[in-house]
Amino acid sequence: MTSWKRPWPLPKKPSRPGADRRADLGPLVSKAAKERVVKLIDSGVAQGAKLLLDGRNIKVQGYEKGNFAGPTIFSNVTTEMDIYKQEIFGPVLLIVELNTLGYQVQLKKVPTIV
Hints:
alpha+beta
C-alpha cells in the first residue's frame, strides 16, 4: 500500500482568512454577519441565558481584523429567547433543559432547523 501525498504544496500563509485547509473553523462571511452573531449573543446574555463559553472577542493571529466568532455555548435557554427563535449563522450551541415529557413533546412539535 502506498501512502497518499498531496500533489501540490500548502501555502505557508493563506492569501485570505478561511482559505487555510488546516483550519478547524473559518470566518463568518462578512462583517455584518459577525455583528449579527455578536448581537444575538448579547441578546441571550441580556435575556438571562447562562453563557458557558464566550466566543465574541476571539482574535486569530495574523487575521486580527477578520470576521471570526469563536465557539459559544449557552445553557438555561428558553423558547421565548431571541437566540432560540432566530437561526444563528455562527458557532453557537444552545442547551434547552426540558423538565417534563409533556414539555418535550410540545417542543418537538415546534418546527426548527437542526
